[in-house]
Amino acid sequence: MITYLSHWDWILYKSRKDLIGYFKNYEISAMSPSGEYSEKLEEIYKNFYPWEINRNKLLDIKAIISLRKIINNYDTNFHCFTLKTGIIFSIANLFVGKHKKAVLSITGLGYLFSDNVKAKFLKLLVKPFIKYLFNKSFSIIIFQNSSDKKIFLKFSGFANKTTIIYSSGIETSNFKIRNTNRNNNKKIKIILISRLLYDKGILDFLSLVNDFNNEKFKFYLAGERDEGNPQNINNEDMDKILNTNNLEYLGEINIEDKLSEFDISIVMSFHEGFSRILLESLYVGLYCLAYKIQGTEVMGNFENLELINLDNTQKFKQYIENYKGVLNNDHNTKLINDLYSSKVVASKFENLYKDLEKSV
What is the average per-residue pLDDT within 287-311? Predict the structure, then answer.
């Protein structure tokens, strides 16, 4: 038995649900706070164990105490998702009767490794804990790109097994493919899909939209605010989104069903482990523009993708104005099915779980 652990139920639903059916030798349970996806987790996973944590707190002591009790009570190995969850698990694991060995997926270094002043202070604060605790708690750490791996290993001194698995996998059969003839005599539809966080480049996107006055183009923004994240946009900037001309805010959308209705997908994140929405957009057949960061430059072998240096919104504008459509997407669909599908990622995870059992 493997239990997926995360400090947010959204993570175990949005990015992991499609993996579950591909495991041949393991049953997968889920453990996260109760939330809007809890009922779906109960349907998808073998078991769902609620774990209460306040996501608005940088370190929730009550959550650590309750997790310690859960770890003691369940005979299971763990796969933790996100660095924050890994820190909480490693602290709780220190106080259990018998230490658990686990796998950790670092899907992006995130807030802790950002340029935020508070984050820099917090990183110094937790560094000795990570150096001491992670080698005790984790047999394997999975990264999504080599840059994150290099930075984190230098910071943490982690000495156990590490590996890189690009992407979290996508279930390609669920996606509608874009009709390449859809755009005749219609507005070109440009979308950014992301949680509404500052480090996802939301303000850069607003700047780009405001720089256009050509009625040929229509801009869309999809995604929800993340109240438990320090980078969550404030009310003032949310009002700007809602009142920006030529920008329609869609809230959360069904990406698998709706993404094919657009023409251009934009990713303006300042840091990503491996951009899932970029991978999905490339598979569906959108023309893609993205900041060149560690989580997008690893996708440079895809067609219909332009990588742009950070803060260069004018380059985005040039590519949009010169857009002539996506002519062929066969290369991208084959590449994703062969390397980044849910089936492929689940197989790689399963091999790591066998290694985890040996270490235990």
Answer: 92
Which residues, at least 6 apart from 39, have a Cβ–Cβ distance to it below 8 Å?
none
Question: Strand 264-267 to strand 287-291: parallel, antiparallel, or no bridges (unpaired)?
Answer: parallel
Give residue-wise pLDDT tens across range 58-115. 678 888 988 998 888 888 899 999 998 999 999 998 887 666 789 999 988 877 787 7
pTM of the model: 0.90
8 vs 54: which has the higher pLDDT = 8
